[in-house]
Structures are given as structure tokens and as C-alpha cells.
Design brief:
The structure holds two protein chains of two kinds. By secondary structure, chain A is mainly alpha-helical. Chain A contains eight helices and no strands. Chain A has one domain. In chain A, 40% of the residues are buried. The chains are: A mainly alpha, B mainly alpha. At the A-B interface, α5 and α6 of A face α8 and α9 of B.
């Protein structure tokens, strides 16, 4: 397999151009799939026999929770790529991931807590998943905080890359220790979402939402990464040409 | 005498750090005093019945230990970073991770170990029975080592930051939650006279993992910090 395409991505002008093209190709499918998922999930799919209409928040909650972890991994991998091969573009991608990931984590926490009110009778339960999601949010905030506390961009890139890698090693340890912690002193039996299977009319919109959210993330991330590349390369000559081409 | 052999270099570094700490007066005692003050606040905030304090004793001990180890991290690299000692360590040719492990060991000796030795006193004041001492001490011994090691990564990263403030807490505390969970659990099981070996073994596993990986991450952080 040839790695030329990968090495090419390391060049800021090339990345800027390719990413701009990709954003368009990703954003439209994301909007269409999201529209189908929301309409199909919130209006057409039948109500759950146990949870009634309340379960419908899963169409937002589950994709957000999946993205919160996926984005952290993406961030750590691109930070590692940037650290190892000194690839500036990879650092720009890692930097663009952090805020989006933190936003999806907040969304997952908020929807989880809203779902908890009718189902558990309380907005916040020290449920292992909610707790490790909260700790994940703190990891994101630490990353963002460290990055913004260092003025020098290359140094901020590399220091926060070390933190992201340490964090990604720790995420499973934190998750399983929280699960273990909670399994010992769980007060009431919390309703589990261990449904054996979902009817297709529920499942298809959910899968569509997963796909839409992932595409949305990549589109947002590439848009942010383009901005990040512009900021880093603001003295380079290719920027003038690229911007002229775009406005033409 | 070959001072570039790893063992010799680490021994010299440990001697130097200990001697410096002794000459600087009681700076290394401050985290210990902080630990004493914080654990005193809990009975004041709650009502001082020993039977009720016993329930929160593990939480008070471990949150106190976590915060005091956080406070102590400022002593780890700050001065050596400012006066160029860390640069000399990087240039010395001896693996940096190994030297930082030695530095972290001294740091634990000065700030972690005193805390463990003070714990019987504090936990007795919080109503823990004497039978709980072995389990509690073992947990604190392992946990404080892990906290120093994980903290070294945060302290290394903070070399890049001019004014840190609360950032160090945001970096280190989420990473330290497994230590807190297993340490506090082992302590509370020891106080309840239950078999506490399961959380203790898990805590030991985390400590061993931290001892192998944390110095490498700290070395990467320090290298970036002194550039």
C-alpha cells in the first residue's frame, strides 16, 4: 500500500484544499441522514413498551456518547502522529478535535441526565457510565486548558499531545475503576438498557443518527482544522492564492 | 568514577535532592501540614461524633492525601527547571526517564512517606479502629507512590506554563481518580473489618503500571518544557 496520500496530507496547502472539498461531501450526507434519523426516531418509530416516549432521547444521547469517546481517541491518535512525525497538520487536527469532543460530552451528559429524571426519578445518579463520562469531560477540559495556557504554538502542540496520549491510556482504567466502584455500593437497581433487540423501525433511525453524527464531527473538525492551518500559516504565500481561488 | 552509569547517576541525584531539601528548611513539611489541616476541617464541617466520622474517614484521608500531593508537586520540578538543572539532566546522556524516576522517589520520600506515617494519628482522630491500620497503611503506601508518579507527568507538563494556578489540578486529578477509588475502598473495607485484598491488589497493579509508564511520559513532558 502506498503512503503517498498520507505524506501529502502533511503539506498545509494540500490539506487545506483537500479538506475544503471533503467538508462539502460530508456535510450534506450528514444533514440528510440526520433529518431521516430525527424524523424516523422522534416521530415514526413506535414508543417503547417500558419507557414510553422517554426512550427517544437515545437518538441524540447514544451518538453523542459514542462520539465523545471516538473524538478523544481521534485526538490522541493525531496528537501522537504529530508528535512522532512532527506533522504540523496532525497537531492542527488534534487541536480542532478538543472543543468538538468536549461539546459532545456535555451533550451526552445533559441528555443522559434529562433521561434520568423520568426513568430514575433523579437528574443525577452516580451511574458508572455517567460518572466516567463526567471524568472524560474533565480530561477534555484539562487538554483545552493546557493548550490555551501555552502561548508558543509548537510547544503547546507537543505538551498537549503528551497529555492526550497519557489520557487515552487512562480512559479505560478510569472507566473500569468507576464501574468497579459503583458495582459495590449501588443503592437501587438501576434500569438497564439491555434490550435484546430493537425493531427495525427503531434501529434504522438510530444507525442513521450514528452515521450522521460521525460525519458531522468529521465535517466540523475539518472546517476547524482548515481555520487552524490558516492561523498557523498566516505568513505563508500559498494562503493568498488559495483564498483567491476560493472566492473565484 | 563513572557518573554516567545509570545507577551511579541516580544515587548522586538522590543524594543531591535530599541534601537540597534539608538545607532549604521545612519546605517539604508544608504538604504534610496541609494534610493535617484539611483532615481537621472535616470534623468541624460535620458533627464530631466518632461513629459518624468513621464513615467519612476514608474519604477525608484520601481527598486530603490527593490534595496534599497536588500541592507538593510544585516542589518537584519548578526550581530545577528555573535554574537549569533539568537541562543538565537531559544532556547528561543518562536516560531521562530513569533520572526522573529517581527524582520522583526522593519527592515521595519527602512528601508521600511523611503523610503515610502521619495517617495512623489522623485516622484515629477520625474514629478508625486500630484493627484497620494495616490495611489503611498498605493502601496509603501504594497510593501515595502512584500519586507521586502520576503527578510527575502533570508537573512536567506545567514546566511549559508560566502561570499555572489551578491548571495542575485539572490535569492531574482526573488521572488520579482510579488511585482514589481503590485506595479509599480498601481503607473503608479495612475500617469495616472486611477482607480488603481485592482493591489493594488493583491499587498495586495501578502503582506498578504508573511506575513503568509515568516516568516515560514525564520525561517527554520535561523535554518539551525545557526546550
Amino acid at each position: 500500500m502506498s503512503w503517498v496520500w498520507f505524506h501529502k496530507l502533511g503539506s498545509p496547502p494540500h490539506f487545506y484544499r483537500i479538506a475544503g472539498r471533503w467538508v462539502r461531501w460530508l456535510a450534506w450526507p450528514a444533514v440528510l441522514l440526520g433529518a431521516y434519523g430525527l424524523i424516523g426516531g422522534l416521530a415514526i418509530a413506535p414508543a417503547d413498551y417500558q419507557q414510553g416516549e422517554g426512550y427517544r432521547i437515545v437518538y441524540v444521547h447514544a451518538p453523542a456518547a459514542w462520539l465523545s469517546l471516538m473524538i478523544y481517541t481521534t485526538m490522541a491518535v493525531s496528537a501522537a502522529v504529530g508528535l512522532i512525525w512532527r506533522m504540523n497538520v496532525a497537531h492542527a487536527v488534534a487541536a480542532s478535535c478538543a472543543t468538538i469532543g468536549a461539546s459532545f460530552t456535555v451533550l451526552a451528559l445533559a441528555t443522559g441526565s434529562l433521561w434520568g429524571k423520568p426513568m430514575w426519578g433523579t437528574y443525577w445518579e452516580w451511574d458508572p457510565r455517567l460518572t466516567s463520562e463526567l471524568l472524560l469531560l474533565f480530561l477534555y477540559l484539562g487538554y483545552i486548558g493546557l493548550r490555551s495556557a501555552i502561548e508558543d504554538i509548537p510547544r503547546a502542540d507537543r505538551a498537549s499531545a503528551v497529555l492526550a496520549i497519557v489520557g487515552v491510556v487512562n480512559v479505560p482504567i478510569i472507566h473500569y475503576s468507576v464501574v468497579w466502584w459503583n458495582s459495590l455500593h449501588q443503592v437501587a437497581s438501576v434500569m438497564k438498557l439491555d434490550r435484546p433487540s430493537m425493531p427495525t423501525s427503531m434501529l434504522l433511525p438510530l444507525l442513521s443518527m450514528f452515521l450522521a453524527a460521525t460525519l458531522l464531527f468529521v465535517a466540523l473538525m475539518l472546517t476547524r482544522a482548515r481555520g487552524e492551518v490558516l492561523r498557523r500559516e498566516r505568513t505563508a504565500r500559498w494562503i493568498g492564492e488559495a483564498l483567491q481561488q476560493e472566492s473565484a | 568514577m563513572d557518573i554516567t552509569s545509570p545507577g551511579r547517576a541516580a544515587a548522586l541525584l538522590i543524594r543531591r535532592d535530599l541534601r537540597l531539601a534539608m538545607r532549604k528548611g521545612g519546605e517539604w513539611l508544608q504538604p504534610l501540614l496541609f494534610f493535617l489541616v484539611v483532615t481537621t476541617l472535616f470534623p468541624l464541617a460535620l458533627d464530631p461524633q466518632l461513629s459518624r466520622l468513621r464513615d467519612i474517614a476514608p474519604a477525608a484521608l484520601w481527598v486530603g492525601a490527593l490534595l496534599s500531593s497536588l500541592l507538593a508537586l510544585d516542589l518537584l520540578f519548578r526550581e530545577d527547571g528555573a535554574d537549569g538543572t533539568l537541562e543538565q539532566l537531559v544532556l547528561s546522556g543518562v536516560p531521562l526517564a530513569w533520572l526522573l524516576l529517581a527524582k520522583t522517589a526522593v519527592h515521595w520520600l519527602l512528601t508521600g512517606l511523611p503523610l503515610v506515617l502521619m495517617a495512623p494519628l489522623v485516622s484515629t482522630a477520625l474514629g478508625a479502629p486500630y484493627a484497620a491500620m494495616p490495611g489503611m497503611l498498605a493502601a496509603l503506601l501504594l497510593g501515595s507512590v502512584a500519586l507521586s508518579l502520576v503527578g510527575a507527568i502533570g508537573a512536567g507538563l506545567m514546566l511549559n506554563v508560566r502561570r499555572g494556578g489551578a491548571l495542575l489540578a485539572l490535569l492531574v486529578l482526573p488521572l488520579a481518580t482510579p488511585v482514589l477509588i481503590f485506595g479509599a475502598r480498601a481503607t473503608s473495607m479495612a475500617i469495616a473489618q472486611q477482607a480488603y485484598d481485592a482493591p489493594l491488589y488493583l491499587l498495586a497493579a495501578i502503582t506498578v503500571l504508573a511506575a513503568t509508564l509515568a516516568p516515560l511520559a514525564a520525561a517527554a513532558a520535561v523535554r518539551i518544557g525545557i526546550e
